[in-house]
Design a protein that fits this description.
The structure is a single chain. By secondary structure, this protein is of the alpha+beta class. It contains 8 helices and 5 strands; from the N terminus they run ααββααβαββααα. α2 runs antiparallel to α6 and α6 packs across α7. The longest helix has about 55 residues. The radius of gyration is 26 Å and the shape is elongated. The relative contact order is 0.11.
Length: about 230
């Protein structure tokens, strides 16, 4: 078993380049489980407006417990994420704060849980959910404090991974747009040469053909440049 500081250092220095966002989040949950001693399963609940969903999890226990809360619209991980508070459930079988959730979670094998918000600047993007089949697994204040430290590091990684994925997507869209423009311009040139018409007339003809065939302009342009359409 590695020292906790070593695990936290790895979490803090998680590299995002050339790795899908889902893989990054999966590694975050794995490191969180390793760092938090009593943890048997860990998950990440993220918020998108009113929607809460599990972005990554280390095992079925965590996923089942999370989904019970989403189905019932209440539970510690959702409340921690939305209110930005730490919530400890010492004994799920006797928990009374979430009567529609706790008995069902106990039936799934959850003995106790710890839910910690994921803070980014002045807002919260979700929650770190830590589960155990044992009761009172997270009663120790030191465990709670460590989990908050893990959540702080995880929140930074998640926010950076989300921003990085968004930037990659924008770059991909820009590249596709530039490629489409280039092939359309090439097709226009072919039409201009064949029809002895202006650039505007060539584009108008290409647009009419696209509408008539109910196909994307770029797809027709590709076929023209490849000699499929003459």
């Amino acid at each position: 078993m590695r020292p906790t500081d070593q695990v936290l250092d790895e979490l803090a220095t998680t590299v995002l380049v050339d790795e899908p966002r889902d893989a990054v989040l999966a590694r975050v949950t794995a490191l969180a489980r390793e760092a938090i001693g009593p943890a048997e399963d860990v998950s990440l609940t993220l918020l998108e407006g009113e929607r809460a969903f599990t972005a990554a999890h280390t095992g079925q226990l965590a996923l089942d417990a999370d989904e019970l809360q989403y189905e019932r619209g209440a539970g510690p991980c959702m409340d921690a994420a939305r209110a930005g508070v730490v919530l400890v459930v010492s004994d799920m079988a006797t928990e009374e704060r979430w009567p529609s959730y706790a008995p069902a979670a106990a039936a799934k094998g959850v003995g106790s849980s710890l839910s910690v918000p994921l803070p980014v600047q002045v807002s919260t993007i979700g929650g770190l959910n830590v589960y155990s089949t044992s009761t009172h697994a997270f009663d120790d204040p030191d465990v709670v404090a460590l989990s908050q430290r893990v959540a702080q590091l995880a929140a930074v990684v998640i926010a950076n991974a989300t921003s990085y994925a968004s930037a990659l997507d924008q770059a991909r869209q820009l590249s596709e747009a530039m490629a489409s423009r280039a092939v359309i311009e090439q097709a226009k040139g072919i039409i201009m040469g064949a029809r002895r018409c202006s650039a505007d007339d060539a584009f108008a003809e290409l647009a009419r053909a696209s509408q008539h065939a109910n196909r994307k302009l770029r797809d027709l342009a590709v076929e023209i440049t490849q000699g499929v359409i003459r």
